[in-house]
Design goal:
Elements lengths: L2 H14 L5 H11 L5 H9 L2 H11 L13 H8 L1 H12 L1 H4 L12 H18 L7 H10 L3 H5 L7 H9 L6 H9 L3 H11 L4 H9 L11 H16 L25 H24 L4
Helix pairs in contact: 1-13, 2-3, 2-6, 3-5, 4-5, 6-9, 8-9, 8-15, 8-16, 9-14, 9-15, 13-14, 14-15
The protein binds fe (ii) ion (FE2) (2 copies).
Length: about 290
């Protein structure tokens, strides 16, 4: 198949991808708005029986180790926080993408979800340490979504890893992103933003997906959050949680210094927190799935 045909195929797949559940869509709308109340999130959860059950099971799962069970949705949502509720809704309705085995990156099933979740936690931690105001929960959501484009393009990249890595070594392409474009006419950031448009995600989320490897190109109003995701992504990869062959094959944009003072000690602390939080969230989600 010609490169241009692959690109068009992928863009068509992004347009035809199943929509998010109405609850996930609504939760993303609410949490992307500058001003919102936790009660709005509670109201969405209460209207969705499946999400209600899942949220209650998760908050009462062994991973959270509560002394007394929580039976009210209001308390469960306020205990878990809005980012976790968004994470649960996305984990449910976009499982076909998060759980896809990325053969084109030679990684095992589940690695996209694990990487996205670690990047989400790290993006939030980075956002909390920014010199400018960045909504940490929104940084988490953006981190969760940032690499979904890989699920759309992976099959078209089958068998290309070794060649692409050799091209990077020999400086024939600058990084993995350019390698993807070179091979199939599109990279995972562009495929991911086509999906985000189809899902009508807020502009800030679309920008985070589109520019997570080149945050300096994001519109100025969204740049701090996009930098948080850029760093969160790299921290997840540095912690050993990437998506396969492309791990750490992207440049670090030094422009982050305009928004963050992050020294070696901060990075070490973030990486520790990420491991701890990841274990808790991932275990609670896995424990409560489909039962
Ligand atoms: Fe990426
Ligand atoms: Fe990533």
């Amino acid at each position: 198949m010609a490169t241009q045909d692959k690109r068009e195929d992928i863009l068509r797949a992004a347009e035809k991808a199943p929509l998010l559940s109405p609850s996930a869509q609504r939760l993303l709308q609410i949490t992307s708005a500058r001003e919102h109340e936790l009660m709005e999130i509670v109201a969405v959860v209460k209207c969705d029986a499946h999400l209600t059950v899942r949220v209650l099971k998760i908050v009462n799962s062994a991973a959270f180790g509560l002394l007394y069970p929580i039976s009210s949705i209001d308390r469960a949502v306020s205990y878990l926080g809005e980012r976790m509720v968004v994470g649960i809704a996305l984990n449910d309705c976009a499982a076909h993408l998060f759980d896809k085995q990325l053969d084109g990156y030679e990684s095992e099933r589940g690695s996209l979800w694990r990487h996205d979740l670690q990047a989400a936690i790290a993006s939030r931690e980075v956002a909390q340490r920014a010199r400018v105001e960045i909504n940490p929960d929104l940084a988490f959501t953006a981190g969760l979504l940032h690499d979904l484009g890989k699920a759309l393009i992976s099959d078209y990249l089958r068998g290309t890893c070794a060649g692409l890595l050799a091209e990077i070594e020999q400086n024939q392409v600058a990084d993995y992103l350019e390698g993807e474009r070179h091979l199939i006419g599109i990279d995972h950031t562009e495929a991911g933003s086509a999906l985000a448009r189809n899902w009508k995600l807020a502009e800030v989320l679309q920008m985070a997906i589109a520019h997570h490897h080149n945050p300096g190109a994001a519109p100025p109003e969204h740049r701090p959050l996009v930098y948080a995701v850029h760093l969160g992504d790299i921290i997840a990869m540095m912690g050993g949680c990437g998506t396969g062959a492309d791990t750490l094959r992207y440049p670090l944009d030094q422009g982050y210094g305009a928004f963050f003072d992050l020294g070696g000690e901060d990075l070490a602390a973030i990486m520790l927190d990420v491991q701890e939080e990841f274990a808790k969230i991932d275990t609670s989600l896995a424990e409560t799935k489909e039962n």
